[in-house]
Amino acid sequence: MSRTVFNHSGLVRALADLAVAETPESKQSFADKLGQWLGFSEALSLYSALNPGTEQTSPLRTRVGTSAELRAAFEQVRNALADSANTTVSEPGADGADFTPYHRHHLARQREMSAEIGLLRASVRTALARRSPALKRLAALDAVMEQALAARERNLLASVPQRLSKRFQHLNAAHLANVDAPGQAPQPDGWLAAYCAEMRTVLLAELELRLRPVDGLIAALENDMTG
Q: Which residues, including other chains, have CB under 8 Å from residue 112's CB and lie 6 or more apart?
């Protein structure tokens, strides 16, 4: 299972390229940070997932989907969400200086990612749980981790549109400053087209970040040699 990593991810690099990310290198290990993020109840759930009791398993396994089928579903979801991320804002406004339509657009794409990837991740866990005892434990662990870290991930990703708002305002201000400059003939939509391209880059990086855990689960199923 591939854990969600914000530092060193494509999303952080994309934001850093826009000079809107404020993500200093953390000196803490993942285990230390995880301990801070989890509450008591989440820690108990995590312990139970890591230390399951002895289970009797049936020699007959129910197949929910082969690894090839799940990988195909993964690619289908990724491509559909990437296409959605690449769409343009439907109602950008008269002068393009209002960030509200772009904010709504970004939030809508985030909601799509959350819903579609959440369903896919649950389906993959179901397939793992019915494949082997080891993969069943992995699926249980992933379910606990997803629930335990959901609020933290949601808060971090919710800050992305806020950071993009700063970039939007910066580009707009620079455009307005150059409108009356001697010898300058700036294109009215030049800065806005640049911003939209940057927003798409950030959305695609966020998509890859959100897909990492599902990719890891499918890879575990692909590497399973028990049947």
A: 81, 84
Predicted structure pTM score: 0.72
Residue 30 placed within a domain: no
- The residues, ordered by sequence, that sit 6+ positions from 66 with a Cβ below 8 Å of its Cβ are none
SS3 content of the chain, % helix, strand, coil (to 5): 70, 0, 30
**Separation of alpha carbons 6 and 99, rounded Å:** 26
The total number of structural domains that make up the chain: 1
Is position 100 within any domain?
Answer: yes
**Residue 61, domain member (yes or no):** no
Burial of 205 (0-12, 13-18, 19+ CB in 10 A): buried
> What are 152-211's pLDDT values in tens digits?
888 888 889 889 999 999 888 888 887 655 445 445 568 888 899 999 999 999 999 999
Q: Is residue 205 part of a domain?
A: yes
**Residue 218 belongs to domain spanning:** 10-18+67-223
- Asked if 190 contacts 96 with a C-beta cutoff of 8 angstroms, the reply is no
Contact by Cβ (8 Å): 20, 166: yes
Closest C-alpha to 77, from 113, 50, 41? 113
Q: Which two tokens stand for residue 200?
A: 């798409």
